[in-house]
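Entry type: protein chain
Record version: 2
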Amino acid sequence: MNWFGRSKKETAAKPSAVSATSSGGRSGGSGGGGGASRTSTANTVVSLRESIATQEKREQHLEKKIEQLTEEAKAKMAKKDKKGALFALKRKKLYEAEIDKISNIKMTLETQVMNLESAAQNAETFKAMNAGKDAMKTIRTDVGIDKVDDLMDEIKEEMDMADEISNALAQPVDPLLADEDDLLAELNALEAEDVEAELLKAPARVAANAGHIDLPDVPSTQLPSIKNATKEEEDELKQLEAELAGL
């Protein structure tokens, strides 16, 4: 057993397994195309996470060792064994320094995992975008700008033809429509003749009735008296009666 709680055989065998996984991933990535590259990336991420887990176990083991050495130093001080207590504290400091190293190693491994996963995601995104570009290129090749222009011209021609057909169907079928202006002119001439005839008849009627003027008949009875009339009003009334009697 070493200081970190594992046998020397385990410690010696573990790096070789990681190295074999990494080398296998690299060889697969170089010769197997996209699928092999994804497999290699996944294997590398798994290997890195296993290394992180191993470092965490070492860290937990060292923390327990530090607690034990702290208790051991206290016990030796209680027994007045300063030399033993000092030795325990020195071992404790070594373990604490090792824990600091493990923390740095874990940070490096975590950074590698994050960067590797990000790179793999970027690669997948690039492949998807490239596939989309190829699909768009295929569609554009099948359609083509010239074909689109021809299609739009044909659509415009068909729409113009439909308008012409609609206008032709909407035209009236009255056979006398072309002679309407002549008919209106003839109607105006008839109206003018009627007006002229009426104007010629009016002077004849006026001349026939020129010697006879219809006037109202002179009253033959005495004009009615006015109640409560003054003397002046009665005199004027009598004068009017005399004038009417002389007519």
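Comment: Residues 51 and 244 are 150 Å apart (CA to CA).
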